[in-house]
Design a protein that fits this description.
- The structure is a single chain.
- By secondary structure, the protein is α+β, with helices and mostly antiparallel strands.
- The chain has a single domain, classed as 2-Layer Sandwich (BirA Bifunctional Protein, domain 2), CATH 3.30.930.10.
- The protein is 29% helix and 27% strand.
- The protein is built from 5 helices and 9 strands.
- The strands form 2 sheets. It has a 6-stranded mixed beta sheet with strand order 1-2-6-9-8-7. Strands 4-3-5 form a 3-stranded mixed beta sheet, with no helix packed on it.
- Strand 1, helix 1 and strand 2 form a beta-alpha-beta unit.
- The chain is globular and about 45 Å long.
- The model has no long low-confidence stretch (mean pLDDT 96).
């Protein structure tokens, strides 16, 4: 499967969300086979289709004070947090070119992250009964997708920089009491974001060409 890459850099979540819809429309209209959007976000909290507001642990006034907007979105799952310390990928993939299997697609997204981390010397794995990627008991990557007309959008985020981890205390990630970790925390060193981005693109190509 071929996909075009769109690198938005550091961007507002709403702008990236609208861009996803634009690429989705192009894929649906057969103007583009598929697209992969890469970006980082300014601080934001998003609520998936099964989210409960009680899993945001601070009030609206405090969120406004911290300049953290909250968006209700189409993806599955509960609440999550994004900021510039993460690398986020939104695959707008036409599953008509792959397999019309949502469970398989989620496992492939996990495989992308697991393979990427493996190349960095980090042993990551799935956690039984949950979506995402863990290093031992700590979650390092979150995944939440939406699918319409067998075209995917939303996607995954990988915690790269350790300075973003503290803000996960503002929520119950995925509605659970889980601990998050980052690549920098595990590797005890700085991560070159451009190199990581290139590796992630390669892993998407590898996994979705199998």
């Amino acid at each position: 499967m071929r996909f075009e890459i769109f690198d938005l850099g550091l961007t507002d979540f709403r702008k990236a969300w609208e861009f996803q819809k634009e690429i989705f429309g192009r894929v649906k209209d057969n103007l583009l086979e598929s697209g992969l959007i890469l970006c980082r976000h300014y601080p934001v909290i998003t609520l998936g289709r099964s989210a409960h507001r009680k899993n945001i642990l601070i009030n609206e006034q405090e969120l406004e004070k911290r300049n953290i907007p909250v968006y209700e979105v189409e993806r599955g799952g509960d609440v999550t947090y994004h900021d510039q310390s993460q690398l986020t990928a939104y695959p707008v993939f036409n599953l008509n070119y792959l397999k019309k299997d949502i469970h398989l697609f989620l496992r492939q997204l996990e495989e992308v992250v697991i393979d990427l981390l493996g190349d960095l010397g980090v042993k990551a794995a799935r956690y039984p009964g949950m979506t995402g990627v863990w290093v031992e008991s700590r979650k390092i990557a979150s995944i939440g997708i939406a699918i319409r007309n067998w075209i995917t959008f939303h996607g995954l985020s990988i915690n790269v920089k350790k300075d973003g981890l503290n803000n996960f205390s503002l929520i119950r990630p995925c509605g659970m009491d889980i601990e998050m970790t980052s690549l920098e925390t595990i590797l005890a060193g700085d991560i070159a974001s451009d190199a990581l981005k290139a590796m992630l693109i390669c892993k998407f190509k590898d996994v979705f060409s199998r």
